[in-house]
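// run 5 | inverse folding | seed 20
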């Protein structure tokens, strides 16, 4: 069987082989079918109820025989090892590194970092799994040092991480760095650091053949075919494609979207390995029991202004008082505290409560906060000139605060990725810092109790409880 690599995005096989290949590119697609229409009292129609639907789907064209190039290693393994089909690949491209040993002035790579850099340079497509605080920007810079003539695009999902990455690249000696974001569409530099949203606003003809290497930070945001990341990766002809994340998604369709766009996992440093190596700290978990409120126990719906999340998390005054009580005690001990919230008004409620009843000086970072202000706050927080910061998801990932002492999960939630990313803000091991505390809450209400159990399972799996 012959596989033709059409370009860095797609491969093709003869359509007679499609039925043979389809099983290795299969996933279970799901969608929600809305229920029947009913008339409301005001005469308007709306749909009520609905059911989840499932069917088998495939990442290969039935008539075209085309599949995403990131699946090539999977297809080859399936054909050769599982089906014993002699297979030939035609048209595969690779970049030849100009430098065989990675080097950054003033940086000595840790053995695991050098190992991941070499694997990336050899495989050239795929995902690198490394926990928060393991130096993913250093690993990325090490890879770039081996390809000094290549045009590079480094994609981020937020302006804060974009600026942080750009600053670090320049610190590492990469002078020709520009950025796309906040109105700038500068593609003139050898290295372009860009927000995915801003990059998607640029005409395809301006970048489709511009880059040799594309790197994506926090690749788990490529969470489906309709995401900006997935659509963008179908429009660039970059040969080398790499993604970084601490935890891969568990949903099969999402994992296949990532693999098809980039490639398989090519290198990994596990969280507990990083702890054993002394790269990050093992956190200790403080669990706080939340008293039950009868009116909230009687609620049945999760969402909405009168839903369980709103009443049990956002507006739950006993729970919010517990959060501020724990915060106040840590601040009196000279510790810095980061409080994570999901909804912006939850942050406002906590800030008001903390300042009025506990006499705390609190800074609140949310989506509307100017990116320059966010960076100034980050620096002051790391220097402990600011002791308490409340933040929404804009600071849940990729923010470097090595000195952080305590993370309070005020938002709840059940996602392993979100939980580990949030905790990762405080796991950096530095001189003078003995421990990192994670404070979580045992919520007693419908849905929320299940979410609590799922977070406890994550902590147990990591051997943190």
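// decoded
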């Amino acid at each position: 069987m012959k596989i033709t690599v059409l370009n860095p995005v797609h491969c093709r096989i003869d359509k007679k082989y499609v039925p043979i290949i389809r099983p290795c590119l299969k996933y279970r697609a799901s969608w929600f079918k809305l229920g029947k229409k009913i008339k409301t009292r005001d005469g308007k129609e709306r749909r009520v109820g609905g059911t989840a639907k499932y069917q088998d789907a495939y990442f290969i064209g039935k008539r075209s025989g085309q599949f995403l190039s990131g699946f090539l290693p999977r297809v080859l393994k399936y054909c050769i090892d599982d089906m014993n089909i002699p297979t030939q690949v035609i048209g595969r491209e690779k970049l030849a590194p100009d430098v065989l040993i990675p080097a950054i002035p003033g940086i000595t790579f840790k053995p695991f970092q050098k190992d991941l850099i070499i694997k990336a340079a050899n495989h050239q497509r795929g995902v690198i799994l490394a926990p928060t605080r393991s130096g993913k920007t250093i690993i990325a810079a090490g890879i770039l040092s081996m390809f000094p003539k290549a045009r590079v695009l480094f994609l981020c999902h937020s302006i804060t991480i974009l600026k942080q990455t750009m600053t670090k690249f320049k610190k590492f000696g990469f002078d020709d760095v520009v950025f796309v974001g906040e109105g700038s569409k500068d593609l003139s530099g050898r290295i372009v650091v860009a927000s995915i949203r801003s990059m998607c606003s640029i005409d395809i003809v301006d970048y489709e053949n511009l880059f040799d290497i594309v790197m994506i930070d926090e690749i788990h945001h490529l969470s489906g075919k309709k995401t900006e990341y997935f659509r963008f990766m179908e429009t660039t002809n970059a040969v080398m494609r790499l993604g970084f994340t601490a935890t891969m998604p568990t949903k099969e369709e999402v994992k296949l979207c990532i693999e098809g766009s980039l490639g398989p996992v090519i290198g990994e440093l596990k969280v507990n390995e990083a702890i054993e190596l002394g790269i990050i700290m093992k956190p200790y978990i403080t669990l706080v029991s939340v008293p039950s409120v009868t009116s909230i126990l009687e609620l049945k719906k999760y969402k909405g202004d009168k839903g369980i999340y709103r009443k049990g998390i956002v507006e739950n005054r006993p729970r919010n008082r517990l959060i501020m009580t724990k915060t106040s005690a840590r601040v009196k001990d000279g510790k810095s505290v980061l409080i994570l919230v999901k909804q912006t008004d939850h942050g406002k409620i906590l800030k008001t409560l903390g300042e009025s009843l506990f006499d705390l000086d609190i800074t609140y970072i949310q989506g509307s906060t100017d990116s320059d202000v966010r960076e100034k706050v980050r620096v002051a927080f790391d220097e402990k000139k600011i002791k308490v910061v409340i933040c929404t998801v804009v600071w849940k990932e990729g923010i470097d605060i090595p000195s952080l002492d305590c993370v309070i999960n005020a938002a709840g939630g059940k996602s392993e990725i979100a939980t580990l990313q949030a905790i990762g803000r405080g796991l950096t091991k530095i001189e003078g810092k003995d421990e990192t505390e994670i404070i979580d809450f045992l919520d007693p209400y419908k849905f929320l109790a299940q979410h609590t159990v799922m977070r406890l399972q994550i902590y147990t799996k990591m051997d943190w409880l």
